[in-house]
Amino acid sequence: MQRGFTLVELSIVLVIVGLLMGGVLVGRDLVRKAQLRTVLTDLEEVQSATRLFSEQYNALPGDIPNATDYWPSAGGDGMVSGTCASAASNDTATCNGNGDRRIAYRPGASNFTEEHMFWQHLTNAGLMEGYYTGKAGPGSIWDSIPGKNVPEGALRDSGMGMTNRPAGSVHANWYMTTHGNFLEYGGKVADSISRNILFTPREQLSFEEKVDDGYPGLGKMHSFTSNFRPNCVTAGNEHVAEYRKDVSDVACSIMWIME
């Protein structure tokens, strides 16, 4: 005769299952918090490395007009605005930027770009760990591949990328205060810069409260506007926009204004 579980035994099993599930959830929460701490470290390290590069070379990484005085030329005329841009070097060889202090110069049909050379020049100078190609991926001029031509982010399938937006330019997805050279930190996007949603509004607000002013369109840490990130922020006007505390899902990505 088979004997079934008693209520006491079933209760014990349920308690054990509950404890195991609770432990998994707590473990996930701890991992997420550790990853989020690394995000701020990543941003600050890039900022610090860029400052040191500027002091040592009197130019910005990616934009430095005499990069080939320090590292091998990838080929052609050495200029990212010329034949060097389509070179196919696979080592530390690089091209010169145009020296306009904007990490943004994008000639047509190019391999090397200032946005991707930014990371290559920092690692060539020994100011960041890793190796980056300095070139766009095969998909487009923006094609950023974390771990290959841009750094990987702290969270899964995330990365960082440099870009520039001229002051005064108007776009519904960007706050008017989001201009100059800035770093984007988000989930990977195919054939483009890593700017997919990665953080909950509360997580990004927590970042802001640690290093900035708490508002998504002011200071040095920004988000996209509500036109592009309606679940992240409340408005498209930087003076009234706030992070949406009522949303618990990931809905935000970071734009970090470089000083």
Polypeptide structure, described:
This protein is an alpha+beta fold and 259 residues long. It has one domain (35-257). The chain has helices at 7-57, 114-124, 201-211, and strands at residues 158-165, 180-187, 221-222, 254-257. A four-stranded antiparallel sheet has the order 1-2-4-3. The termini are far apart.
Q: Please estimate the helix content.
A: 25-40%
| Main β-sheet description | 4 strands, antiparallel
How many E-type strands? 4
- Tell me the overall shape: globular
Strands of the biggest beta sheet: in what spatial order? 1-2-4-3
Question: What is the structure about, briefly put?
Answer:
The chain is 28% helix and 8% strand. It has helices at residues 7-57, 114-124, 201-211; strands spanning 158-165, 180-187, 221-222, 254-257.
Key attributes of the depicted protein:
4 strands; 3 helices; four-stranded antiparallel sheet
